[in-house]
Design a protein that fits this description.
171 residues; mainly alpha
């Protein structure tokens, strides 16, 4: 009987060692650069007059650097110059006042990171695992939704919510 228990334990540990949770690991540990974080430079252009070039700024930006945020704003029909100036268009004033009606926190990312770490620490206090597990999935499992369950609830007879992009029923 002990051999059976040992064989089951050994197979469970072996299978757990084969799991790959790198899709949920957000930090790189192998020391290589993130391939999506590398932005190629724009093509070099000869200026109309070399006398009118701005002086070099060590550590600053240059004309050949990509501006991904400004390019995205321009592609969506916005004004990249207003983005660099920090100006808010007049049309967005009402939106910003509605969003900030309860006040804003300039340090929100650090606050959320601290709260998340405290929540995960509480979730793992008495939850010791023999094999590695996905910490985020375990901590937030109670707050997750089952998309297939909700799709079936929406598709109930008499429902008035269309689901054109969802898989067909039974598929």
């Amino acid at each position: 009987m002990r051999r059976v228990h040992f064989a089951i334990l050994l197979s469970a540990v072996t299978l757990a060692a084969c799991s790959n949770d790198t899709l949920r690991t957000l930090s790189r540990t192998d020391g290589t650069p993130e391939e999506f974080g590398i932005v190629p430079n724009q093509p070099l252009e000869q200026p109309p007059s070399f006398a009118e070039l701005p002086p070099p700024r060590p550590g600053g930006t240059n004309r050949a650097d990509q501006q991904p945020l400004g390019d995205a704003v321009a592609a969506l029909g916005g004004n990249p110059a207003a983005l660099n100036a920090g100006a808010v268009p007049a049309a967005d004033g009402a939106l910003l006042s509605a969003v900030g009606r309860f006040g804003t926190n300039g340090n929100i990312r650090a606050v959320i990171a601290e709260e998340d770490e405290a929540f995960r620490a509480r979730a793992r206090l008495f939850n010791w695992r023999l094999v590695p597990d996905n910490e985020y999935e375990r901590a937030y499992r109670a707050q997750s939704l089952d998309p297939y369950l909700w799709l079936e609830r929406v598709r109930q007879p008499g429902g008035n919510i269309a689901t054109p992009s969802a898989p067909p029923p039974g598929g």
